[in-house]
Amino acid sequence: MSEIASRNKVLMRRMYEEMWTRANPAFAAELFAQPEGVERFVSQFLSSFANLQHTVEEMIAEDDRVAVRFLAKGTHTGQWMQFAPTNKSIQYAGITFARIAGNKIVAHETLWDKAGLMEQIGGK
Q1: Domains, the chain, ordered by start
Q2: DSSP state of 83
C-alpha cells in the first residue's frame, strides 16, 4: 500500500473516532475541505442519538480514494425527522466513499441503512 493510501486511511479512521464516536462535530473543520454541511448534519444527528459509537469494520484505500464499511450503535434520545425520542437502542451499517486531497476530504458519499433505522424507532 502506498504512503498516501495509508495516510488517507488514518484520516478516515479519525473521522469516525473523533467526529462521531467522541461526538465532536467541530472536528469536521480539520477533516473536510467544505465542513459546513457536514458539521451541521453530524450535530443534528448526534442530538437525536446519544452515545453513538461508530466501528470501522473494513477499509480499503488506493491512492486518493478510501472506502469504509462501518457499524453504528447508539440510543434514540432526541427528535429525529418525524420520530419522537423512543430511548430504544439502535444500530445501522453503512459505507463511505471518499476522495482525499491535501489531507482533506474533498468529496464523499455515505450510503447507510436509513430505512432500517427508521424501522427500529417506529417507522414503517
Answers
A1: 3-120 (3.10.450.50)
A2: B
